[in-house]
Structures are given as structure tokens and as C-alpha cells.
Write a structure and sequence with these properties.
- The structure is a single chain.
- With 438 residues, the protein is α+β, with helices and mostly antiparallel strands.
- It has 20 helices and 11 strands.
- The chain is 48% helix and 9% strand.
- The chain is elongated.
Length: 438
């Protein structure tokens, strides 16, 4: 598609991406915008990221940019940093075969018994690279040399028809990288596309392959699914295809009864997340994971109190460690999120016990607002037995904020405090020369 046949203009492309494209081009290499950013620009969506594909090897890219670092084991990538913005540059991928002892290591790929690619540093041409892409709508390349779009898999036609198709054999592609099943759901909801039958039907059979994916990678994928404004749609679609159950195994039993409180609690969590994002408010994964693991936490607490006679506070602390530990086996949630999540849980007990001066203390706590929102969520989706108690508790803390509005914003909404000195404390004044001891 020549420049006059498509709507993409260089003014729609981030300046750092243009700098990368032009420097590669001026150095004699091929340079293309590729994948989702081209797709989104064609759909009139402003891309969040701009990815570049080139025939330059990662080491050659690094020589052109001082602000470049090489990352990745499965496939070597160049990350070019412009402040907080990163332009990812990938060398054209080639067709791969299983390794042979006579071949040098960099000339082959490596797969496990399930067919998942463990190493994929095989370079090729742009034609081969397009065939290695996952979906047809992602095999689109914008050439900085002539401003044309190269469509290798009829991706533009699929965009117009609103259908998501896989390049190559779907089952093989899912085995190579099971995360493609999550990407299929995410693209379908984000782009309002339907899954082609060849894409949708194998998901049920291969959903368990997600258990082979490193938990750290699934954490990143979970953020893309649930913190981009389509959390509810992704939750429902993932559940239908048995993928949500792979990400959160402890929630399997709570998805069997959509009319009951636990399912409604999860659904309301994702609805609230989407609403906050639509209003331009920030969200924190800590709150999200606190909500997702709340019901498994309650079940484990009851089990500990019944078996060992532990008081609620001790039971919660032990249950929290158990539930988070189990979740880390599938999604590796960093401590910067699990610690606040545990504080949100602990606040639910403190809300019930607080009296007198402790009420004011809680109101001034930096985690109060998130914990209070969590209490409202519990009240809105409570079981009939808990409805009255939680409703009264929520009303009490609402009134307390009217009398003493100390913490009116959630912690993730507040601007960062100004630092004082190197350690954040007050700087000591130097003594005057006249007051120095002789």
C-alpha cells in the first residue's frame, strides 16, 4: 500500500521511533515499524508502543545507539531508551529447525517436548519474519524508506472484516508459545474483533500449556489483560476458554456459580477497574490482586481457625502467606504489590476493631483509601448473611471521613512527596562559626 493508499502519517509516529527508523535507514539497514503499532494506526488508535523490525543484527543495532541495551534469551532484542520510553528493535526472524550437533548454536532454535520454543535466535528476511508473526493483523510493516505499508498475510482485509486469524497452523503456534492464547483474547476485546474458528477452537484443549510459561512473564501478561480498560471483557472471555483458571488456579471453584457472591465480587472488581481507567484515575495492581485472592484467603482463614483454633489476626497472616505463595507458582507478583495487598486485607479486620483514637489513626494511614474502597466492594457484593454487617461498617467509615477528611485520595492517586535531602529527612543546619566550640 503506497503512501496515498493508507492514512498513516509520520506525525502520528512518536519522535523516538522516527529517530530509530531514520538512523537505521541512514546506516544502510532496512527499517520498518511493525505489528501492533501499524495495526492501531490503521484503526485510528494511538499506539502505546512503537516496535521496529530490521535486518541489522542486535550487536549492529547496539553500535548505532549508545542508549541501547540487549535483552532476552529466547530471542535477542535491542531496547533503545529515550528517558522512560523504550523503542524495541527486533532483527527479522527466520524459519527454524531443531538443532543438530554439527550446527553452530546461533543458527538454530530449541523446543521442549510440548513444542514450546525455548530459544529462537534464528534470523532471516522480512518475508520469513512476517510468516513467524502470530496473527495476520500483526504482519504489517511500515517502511520508512518509501512510507508504504507491506501486508504479507492479508491483515488489512482481516481488520476490515473484524476477524482475528492465525498465521500458520494454530495448534503448532500455540505450542510454540502458549501466551498467544492470551494475546488472542486481548486483541479480540481491544479491537472488537471475533476469533476465527481456527483460532478459538484449539484454546480449550491447549489452555493447560500456560502452566509451562514462567510466572514472571505471566505477571506482565496479566497486567496487559486487566489494567488496560478491558478487564471485565477479558475476565469473561478468559473464563469461557478456561484460561483464567490457569492464571488463578485458586479461583477455579468460584467461577462455577456466576450468581453467587464470589463471582459477583470478581466481576465487580474488574468493572470498577475499567470505570476508574475510563475516568482517567490511576489503579494499582496491589488492589487488583488483593481482590482476586480475597475469597481463597477467606477459605484458608476459616480452615486454619477451625483446625488450629487460631485467632482471626494470626489466621489471616498465615493464610495470606499461603495464598500468595500458591499464586506465585503461576503468576509471580512482585513484593511491591503483595505487601500493600496484605495491608488492604489487614485493614478489613482493623475496620471492625477500631474505636476512639484508632479511628483517626486509620483515617490518616496512606493505605486507608484503598482499604476503604475494598470495604465498599465487599459491601456491594456481600452474601445475605454479611450484607447488614458490612453495610453498617461501610456507612460508619463513610461518616468518619465526613467529620475528619484526612485521607481523601487513594495512595496511587497522590503526587509523590518531595524528598528532603539524601535520606528524606530534614537537613541539619550547620553551626555558625561564632558558635563553634574553641
Amino acid at each position: 500500500m503506497t503512501r496515498d493508499q493508507h492514512p498513516i502519517s509520520r506525525k502520528d509516529i512518536a519522535e523516538p521511533a522516527l529517530k530509530v527508523l531514520y538512523r537505521l535507514h541512514n546506516a544502510g539497514y532496512e527499517a520498518y515499524l511493525v505489528g501492533g503499532c501499524v495495526r492501531d494506526l490503521l484503526l485510528g488508535i494511538q499506539p502505546k508502543d512503537f516496535d521496529v523490525a530490521t535486518n541489522a543484527k542486535p550487536e549492529q543495532v547496539q553500535k548505532l545507539f549508545r542508549n541501547c541495551r540487549l535483552v532476552g534469551r529466547r530471542f535477542r532484542l535491542a531496547h533503545i531508551m529515550f528517558g522512560r520510553e523504550i523503542i524495541e528493535v527486533a532483527t527479522f526472524r527466520g524459519h527454524h529447525t531443531e538443532s543438530k550437533e554439527s550446527e553452530p548454536a546461533q543458527k538454530h532454535s530449541k523446543q521442549d517436548q510440548e513444542g514450546m520454543l525455548l530459544r529462537d535466535n534464528v534470523y532471516g528476511s522480512i518475508d520469513e519474519d512476517a510468516q513467524r508473526r502470530d496473527f495476520t493483523v500483526n504482519a504489517l510493516y511500515y517502511n520508512i524508506a518509501d512510507f508504504a505499508i507491506y501486508d504479507f498475510a492479508n491483515g488489512v482485509a482481516d481488520i476490515e472484516q473484524g476477524v482475528l486469524r492465525m498465521i500458520g497452523d494454530t495448534e503448532t503456534r500455540y505450542r510454540e508459545d502458549p501466551v498467544r492464547m492470551l494475546r488472542a483474547i486481548r486483541f479480540a476485546t481491544k479491537l472488537s474483533m471475533r476469533l476465527d474458528s481456527t483460532v478459538a477452537e484449539p484454546i480449550h484443549e491447549h489452555a493447560q500449556l500456560l502452566q509451562n510459561i514462567p510466572p514472571a512473564r505471566l505477571f506482565e501478561e496479566s497486567l496487559k489483560l486487566f489494567t488496560a480498560g478491558k478487564a471485565l471483557a477479558n475476565f469473561e472471555m478468559l473464563s469461557d476458554y478456561n484460561l483464567f483458571q490457569q492464571l488463578f488456579p485458586q479461583l477455579k471453584n468460584y467461577l462455577k456459580a456466576p450468581s453467587e457472591a464470589p463471582y459477583q465480587f470478581l466481576r465487580q472488581t474488574f468493572t470498577d477497574t475499567d470505570t476508574r481507567l475510563a475516568k482517567g484515575l490511576s489503579i494499582t495492581p496491589a488492589y487488583l490482586f488483593a481482590a482476586l485472592l480475597w475469597w481463597p484467603l477467606q477459605a484458608r482463614m476459616e480452615e486454619l481457625m477451625f483446625e488450629s483454633g487460631l485467632p482471626p489476626v494470626d489466621a489471616m497472616n498465615i493464610a495470606a502467606a499461603d495464598v500468595i505463595g500458591r499464586q506465585m507458582q503461576s503468576i509471580a507478583v512482585p513484593k511491591r504489590f503483595t505487601i500493600p495487598a496484605r495491608e488492604i486485607w489487614q485493614f478489613q479486620q482493623r475496620f471492625e476493631r477500631a474505636k476512639g483514637k484508632r479511628v483517626k489513626t486509620l483515617l490518616g494511614h496512606p493505605r486507608f483509601r484503598a482499604a476503604y474502597d475494598f470495604l465498599l466492594l465487599r459491601s456491594a457484593t456481600a452474601t445475605p448473611l454479611e450484607q447488614k454487617k458490612l453495610s453498617e461498617l461501610a456507612q460508619f467509615w463513610t461518616k468518619q471521613q465526613e467529620h475528619a477528611p484526612v485521607a481523601t485520595a487513594r495512595e496511587d492517586e497522590r503526587p509523590a512527596a518531595k524528598r528532603r535531602g539524601r535520606r528524606g529527612g530534614r537537613r541539619r543546619k550547620k553551626p555558625d562559626a561564632a558558635n563553634k566550640p574553641s
